[in-house]
User: Fold this.
Amino acid sequence: MLNSSLDNREKERRLFLSRMTASFIFIALLILVLVGRLFYLQVVQHERHEARSQTNRLEVLPIPPIRGLIYDRYGELLARNEPSHTLTVVVERSGDLDALVQDLSALVDLSEDQVSRFFDRVRGYRRPFEPIPLKVRLTEEEVARVSANRIFLEGVQIDAELIRQYPFGEEFAHALGFVGRINQEELRDLDVGAYAGTRFIGKEGVERQYEDALLGEPGFQRVETNARGRIIRVIEKQAPKPGSNLHLYLDQELQKMAYDLLGEQRGSIVAIEPETGGILAMVSNPGFDPNLYVSGFPTEIYNALRDSPDNPFLNRAIRGQYPAASTIKPFLGLAGVDQGFVTWDYTINDRGYYQLPTDDRIYNDWKRGGHGRVNLRKAVAESCDTYFYQLAYDMKLEAIHDIYDQFGFGKNTTADVYNPFTGINPSREWKQNRHGFSWYAGDTINLSIGQGYMLATPMQLAIATSVLANRGRWVTPRLLMHSNDESLLDSIPEPPPDVHLNNDANWDRMHAAMQDVVQGARGTARASGLGATYEYAGKSGTAQVIRIERDENGDPIGDVPEQFRDHAWFMGFAPLENPQIAVAVLVENGGSGSGVAGPMMRSLFDFYLTREPEQ
Amino acid sequence: MNFTEYVRQLPQGSMDRRQSIWTRLHLDPYLFAALLAVALSGMVVLYSATSGDMGAVYRQAIRFGIGFMAMIIVAQFDPRWFQQWGGTVYLVGVLLLVAVIVSGAQAMGAQRWLQIPGLFRFQPSELMKLAVPVMLSWYISRYGLPPRYRDLLVSAVLLFVPVALIIQQPDLGTSLLIASSGLFVIFLAGLSWKLIVGFSTIAIAMIPVLWIWVMRDYQRQRVLTLFDPNVDPLGAGWNIIQSMTAIGSGGLSGKGYMLGTQSQLDFLPESHTDFIIAVLGEEFGFVGATILIALYAVIILRGMLIAIRGRDNFCRLLAGSLTLTFFIYVFVNVGMVSGILPVVGVPLPLVSYGGTSIVTLLTGFGMLMSISTHQRN
Assistant:
């Protein structure tokens, strides 16, 4: 027993010794590798490295490219570059940072915010010898003061650089997006070479979508520096390649008009040119000043915006999702009549409610007492719910889902709108996956008036309206009109297949029904159509936020708190023949679609169709 | 008498009075002398690397003072103590690592520190550099060598947990060192060559997977930069180009103390921390760099000898692992600065400027000395 334990110990000792011997050989070899490497660098390649160290006083410095400009369709400048002086510190060349910042604060006006942001960046991941900005947009006087004291300020530089400026501020904040300083997360993933010398990157919107094209390519200059890195002489220079300029379909005057129309109200307006798919206006209200993003938001302003119940950072045009409400009816009616579920002459007698044959549940029309005898044209003009309840019941979910899909609901069809939401075009599978319930007949009924599970963004409704105005012809909705980089247009994707009807006359008849909405004797929005010098089509929608008490006209009874009021929708196009503009208007908690959103659309049409042509 | 018997009896046979004083002090004279030599030459280089900042040298000297003190104190304890406390320290260390992730103070862009309010900032991963080898040596030596499959599995888990937590911080350098310290214990304990070959094959097969799905862009960039630093001369390649130029331009005997243009004219980044050997290489040449490596070799050889003479499996495994890990420190740092390994943040042991790693390293050497001076009683 004792013997075997001794035996074991001996075995263990021998095993360990053999492993140490193996390690010894391994280590000896690797030390040889190290010494060999040093020998190679220091003896074999010595002359080469010696020569390089002699000329190492030559530094290669990047020259950032000029960011591409963004224009509207008439050449109005929407995003430009403005010269600005930035105070930067090369940490590797400065001494005690705290003392340095102390000294600098005597020369320039530094806020606590700027200082703490600076130290965050110093501590974070950065390139060696990268100048870290301390303050942007120095005044002339500050530049002079720092320059005069430069000899005492080790590592301090004043960089003249071009920074982004948005002359129209809030109006275009959501449409264009903005650039901001490259943050640490972005720094990890981007191509460091392409961004040498560049401190800004597109964060949202067009600036983000076309970042690669707008950026350009950096140039380099070989310079002779002294021991402290000051440039003595430029030896060689390779100019940067500026970023591509973008010309967008956006129409600055129309955009401003739309922005002003929304005024104090939360909402969104999107306008599209049906012929080209070009997005003429894309407003989300409230906005924010994108120029603040560029220079760095003062914390208190940023916090106020972030915490605002109006949610100004939400781009409602593409990321606000709302029930489409009655604006969906023309699309449904078109499919119903074209597929033979109803004819234009077919009528129902509306007594103000609809009841499923299989169910006791009552679906009320918005108008108590009903619309009486109603055909499809009148059902659109007066927005008769009962007619569409019946139609939806006959058509069934699949046919409805299909026609909504053909008009682009529930998916993204835009080419270059950054990061849009897709809304929801529900189906049986969708409900089963999302809610774990099967589809009920009542869900189909809700779908017929754009309520229930269906959600759409203002962009989607504007696109669908544009396709409807185009008599089913799809053109990929886009912002970019042209650019000096022609390859950008090649990357515009193909549009969805056109919407084909069995009988093309149905387009005209649906357009006529929609004209009745605004220009007919009994249209829901006839008040907003009064006095127009051109023919146009429209459809109102009033999306319920919660169920509230209503009178016989569908108007709420008593005071309703603002956030529970209905969302007001209006969509339409003008003129009736050869439409030039299709629009969707959404006013959050705005109340009645025809009363609130309809007049806004009319004003836009008046402006767009009667404006003097640009010289 | 076989070879091991001979080695074990040698010191007792040839012990004279001077050595016995060292033994009574529980210090190993050869190890002590070599460590001191590295520390002193390191401070000489540091003075130059900081362009003559005596304050930095002074702070470094204080760290060495604390470190050597810790070494001497730890050496007084019988290895039995490490065995007894290893598990507890390991457990506390793991909890602290979790705490770092939950609430660690942001430092150097990564979560590595734990702020003890009003006291000091503490880096739990340093603790694990010692706790992991102690824990694994203790666990594996409980059941005799070579380890059974079950023990291997448990050891793998004991190693994986802290390494995974430290990678999260993210601290690639430290997690690499801790992973090797554990793998060395398992290797020295006699993991069969068949398994070693098998695992290595799997590890190599995993490389494409890591490359495509796990590594971040900047990490890939570092590896690509290794093969051709000129692809990105303004970005990731800068450090490597400058350090290779510094070392190479030093030549056989160097440009002279404080006369390295690369180091003194600010072309060499991190010159007093991770890249300090480039300063040595530039100013003292191939001769100087080789002498430093030779000093490291003395430390490593002495450590291996102590491991072989260790009184039991625990002592042998622990001493072996600490020594081999020390070698990895040297190899990875010199390898990355001279451009044969990608840049991971591993300092040159006992030479690079910086606090905690000096104290941890010297504490580890204290354990080695304890093992060498507490023979069977």
Observations:
- The radius of gyration of chain B is 21 Å.
- The first strand of chain B starts at residue 105 and ends at 107.
- DSSP finds 15 helices and three strands in chain B.
